[in-house]
Amino acid sequence: MAETPQEKSKATEAGFQPLRKTSKESTSKDKLIEGSAWMTAGSILSRLLGAIYIIPWVIWFGSMSDEANALFAKGYNIYSFFLIAAIAGIPSAVAKQVAHYNTMNEFAVGQRLYKRGLLLSGATGIVCALVLYFGAPLFSNSDPNVVPTLHSLAWAVLIIPTMSLTRGFFQGYQEMAPSAISQFVEQLARVAYMLISAFIIMRVQHGNWVSAVSQSTFAAFIGAIGGIFVLFLYYLRHRSRLRELAENSKQELAIPTKQLYKEIIAQATPFIIIGSAITIFQLIDQFTFFNIMQQAFNYSTRLVNTLYAYFAFNSNKLVMIVVSLGSAMAITAVPMLSEAKTRGNKREINNQVTDALLLFSFFMIPSALGMAAIAQPLNTLFYHYDVIGTLVLELSAYVSIILGLFTVIAAIMQGISENVRAVGYFAIGTVVKFALQFPLVAYLGAMGPLISTAIGFAIVSGLILRHLNQEYGIGYRRMSKPFAGILVFSLIVFAVASVVVRVSYLFLDPYSKLIALLVCVLAACLGGFVYLYIALKTRLADMMLGDRVERIRRLLRIH
């Protein structure tokens, strides 16, 4: 059935979702909130699963848990870099370009772009998997235990690029549900395999801990199979609608296949660097921390491994739950900004950037400060009672605000095609990270890498924000009042949660995991309720989320 002129015009308006065949019009802020809600839900649930498994996993590994965590982190950091190279920024680039062509009512071109991208991502996946598998000894940094871990991870590199590309395709249509649900299923399958294999090897067979870690990392491949299956079902569900959109698009652009590949590569290349920014900093830590610590302190290898696990795995696993809030909004913002850029609408870009920063602050700041407040019971619950581990987790929670901010504004730069400039700013931050790494690690030990990372990303973020303000203007005046409220309310949350933790541990056993769970739940629930109540009472939540919160206000009888 052919589209009406009204339907065609709506295809160019912010918030229109052609796959749903809906006549409802949405503002860009509505679209950002809805997309962020889906991506946040998927990301948070996935991260929670990826953190909760640690509790039994650590128990089953016993005294070798910290070394197992360190080995897991070493393998995953290298794997993450290869995975980003295999994905090559193609999903985000395809999402951006698909949104660009959809805005022009050239749906057929966007779909051709996706199909060509499948061939490209499949090829890069094969190449990178082979390099990772056969080059494992070269990337192990002289640690033989890392080699089998990298071998097990190479299998995931084969298929994850295709899965990520398909997520990017749906995101180009501003459909975030497929990505969110497939992400959750991927993590669920991965965690299930990890726990089953770890239990069998460590508890039933009383086997080698390195073999158990290798099976736990192989779980990434199992998870990827689950994730790509969900996306395949979504594609089948929307196949007829996609065909209809392609048939009824303008079809005025005749773009050769060679040019489509050029577009993908040109858009994707800067995404590789920006998309792997946090991983690059983690690799810098991995390949410098051990040498610096041994030179400065002459510690044993096992002790350095334990300290490395504190910040590279233990705290990182937990704070990435919070950082995922930022990445969820970042993914949502890219196709929307691309649409606004295509239309040349600077005012819309200004509004979207301002809304994204406010939404980020509304969720990220209280979450990070809340995690810092409950760092002691949280670290005890997931790992074991440890003063240094608690301090590292608390610092990591503060640093997560900077990491999340970078994730959001880097995605904004990509959405408005400022990729090269973003890469240049990141290069400056990397130089700063390198310059500060040795003195900070030598002086502060496990805290050093976190502080050098925070300073490096703070500089990059500051440069990006300055550029965005110069080119498009950021509504700092509009942001000032709600941001001040967010900051004050977040500090109240921090104070409430801190008091709960400190008072609880005046009477309760700090070494007990059960007590730690109770303290975490009590502090998090009380702090979260206080933030929700104040945000609703002062109408801050209405300013951030619109009329959606009215039902919650009525339910809680807040007037």
UniProtKB/TrEMBL annotation:
Top-level taxon: Bacteria
Record InterPro entries: PG_synth_SpoVB, Poly_Biosynth_Transport, Polysacc_synth
CDD domains, A to Z: MATE_SpoVB_like
Topology of the protein relative to the lipid bilayer: Multi-pass membrane protein
Cellular compartments annotated: Cell membrane
Sequence segments annotated as region (Disordered): 1-28
Keywords assigned by UniProt, alphabetized: Cell membrane, Membrane, Transmembrane, Transmembrane helix
Any Pfam family the entry gives: Polysacc_synt
Sequence intervals crossing the membrane: 37-58, 78-96, 117-140, 152-170, 191-212, 218-236, 264-284, 318-337, 357-375, 395-416, 423-440, 446-465, 486-508, 514-534
Record-level GO cellular component terms: plasma membrane
UniProt key word Manganese: no
Compositional bias ranges of the Basic and acidic residues kind: 1-11
PANTHER family: LIPID II FLIPPASE MURJ, PST FAMILY PREDICTED COLANIC ACID TRANSPORTER
Protein name per UniProt: Polysaccharide biosynthesis family protein
Source organism: Pediococcus cellicola
